């Protein structure tokens, strides 16, 4: 490999070599780390740097965009409130006004 530097301090042939290796990785079914472990001419950090610097559009395409659907459920826990001799079971979604009125009646 010719190590003569270009004007932007990248060795001559670097981009071509790394592009070739990068494409070999893309065609493999391996993770970036696993692929690099099988290579003698590139390390994980070198190929990762190349990917971030020269192929950021590939990373953007791999990331899902948009909103994720989240299924939310109302709490299913009840609250047991003990007031004097009374036990008031407060379910999820209780009526606050009714609870207030009830507490006024049973509170000594």
Molecular structure report:
The chain folds into 2 domains: about 15-60; about 75-108, no CATH class. The chain is built from 5 helices and 2 strands. It has helices at about 15-25, 30-35, 45-55, 55-60, 95-105; strands at about 80-85, 85-90. The protein has a two-stranded antiparallel sheet with strand order 1-2. Strand 1 and strand 2 (about 85-90) form a beta hairpin. The longest helix is centred in the first third of the chain and has 14 residues, at about 15-25. It starts with 13 loop residues before the first helix and ends with a helix. The model is unreliable at about 1-5 (pLDDT under 50).
Topology at a glance:
Layout: H1 14-27, H2 32-37, H3 44-54, H4 56-62, E1 79-83, E2 86-90, H5 96-106
Antiparallel strand pairs: 1-2
Helix pairs in contact: 1-3
Descriptors:
108 residues, mainly alpha, 2 domains, two-stranded antiparallel ribbon, rod-shaped, disordered N terminus
- Computed over alpha carbons, the radius of gyration is 31 Å
Number of domain modules: 2
| β-sheet strand percentage | 5-15%
Helix/strand/pairing class, anyone?
A: mainly alpha
Instruction: Identify the overall geometry.
Output: rod-shaped
| Number of helical segments with 4 or more residues | 5
The strand line-up of the biggest sheet is 1-2
Low-confidence region ranges:
1-7
Largest sheet: 2 strands, antiparallel
Order of helices and strands: HHHHEEH
Mean pLDDT, nearest integer?
81
Helix content: 40-55%
Give the strand tally: 2
